[in-house]
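New to this. Please check this record:
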Amino acid sequence: MFEFCVENFKGISDFQGLSPPLGNKPLLIFRGESFEHDPIMGKIKTMFIDYFRGPTVDKIRPAGVQHCITFTSIGSTKILMRTFMINGITDGTEGTVTKAALTPMGPSMDLIPKRSKLASNDVWKVACRVPKEATIKKKKNISQDAFGSKLGRIHMDTQDFSKLATRKMKGLKKDRKEDADESAEEEEDDDSGDDVMDTLEEANPVGEAYDDIGGDLD
């Protein structure tokens, strides 16, 4: 907890025509060695960052940074808070921003630290700890589209469709009589093929003559 004495306060209404855009993230600038070396001023800096930083975003468009808030420490006795509108000066030939002009606007004030009550280091570490439920861990092969639907990717091995178990239908089953008829027809076909080979061998005496010649030559 920190207590400040406010001096030289100027609100947004004191600067005609200048106001920070709604929902725009400010650029926070801290100047002064006391923010780095003084533990109390370091905690005040952390409090200002948590209060003014706004929502956390992944990317920021440079042209979207339109105002900044500066905190200048004068030792450990006073903090000068100033707000400026950022006006980019573009190059006439290429259209790129080459310079930035700062225009003062509200709020503007001088803060003098008074009383402060800080927690111990152990309590401070526990208070700054982020719970596991608040951290979003990136899961492998799981993504999310723009509409918030969860998409998953599954990697499978090569499937053997011969071992694929399909649902048996009664219309595809064969009767035992049909199986017996098919097996009988296959046996008849084999017997007829053997008879044809026997007739061909009997009607081919030339082959026997070649066999006799070959035997004499041996």
Notes: Residues 69 and 196 are 105 Å apart (CA to CA).
